[in-house]
Amino acid sequence: MKNVLTTFVSAMALSTSIVFAGHMEDKNKSGVKNLPPAEPVLETPAPKRTKTSNDYGKYTPAQKASIVALKVAK
Questions:
Q1: pLDDT: is 58 or 36 the higher one?
Q2: What pLDDT digit, counting tens, does each position of 3-52 carry?
Q3: 55, 65 in Cβ contact below 8 A?
Q4: Hey, where are the domains in the chain?
Q5: What is the SS3 string spanning the chain?
Q6: What is the pTM of this model?
Q7: For residues 25 and 15, what is the distance between their CA atoms, to the nearest angstrom?
């Protein structure tokens, strides 16, 4: 009984794979005709790199402390 069941399952797997393989070949043949025409790729130059500015680099320590409301001890 085990051999009969194994043979049946193998036959089913083989038949489904054959059916799906045939279906995929038909689909590939007709699918090529349905593709839209290719559009050219637009190439643009990369954006220019800008320098990052450190806004707090131009202040003195006393000015920085007053911005964040700290008291400078001398």
A1: 58
A2: 888 998 998 888 888 777 766 655 555 555 666 677 777 788 888 888 77
A3: no
A4: 1-33
A5: CHHHHHHHHHHHHHHHHHHHHHHHHHHHHHHCCCCCCCCCCCCCCCCCCCCCCCHHHHCCHHHHHHHCCCCCCC
A6: 0.31
A7: 16
Question: What is the C-alpha separation between 30 and 18, in angstroms, rounded?
Answer: 19
The tokens of 31 are what?
Answer: 């699918």
* 67 Cβ contact list (under 8 Å, min separation 6): 59
Q: Are 26 and 37 in contact (CB under 8 A)?
A: no
The pair of structure tokens assigned to 17 is: 């794979």
Note the residue count of the chain.
74
Q: Which two tokens stand for residue 16?
A: 């489904």
Average pLDDT over residues 39-66: 79
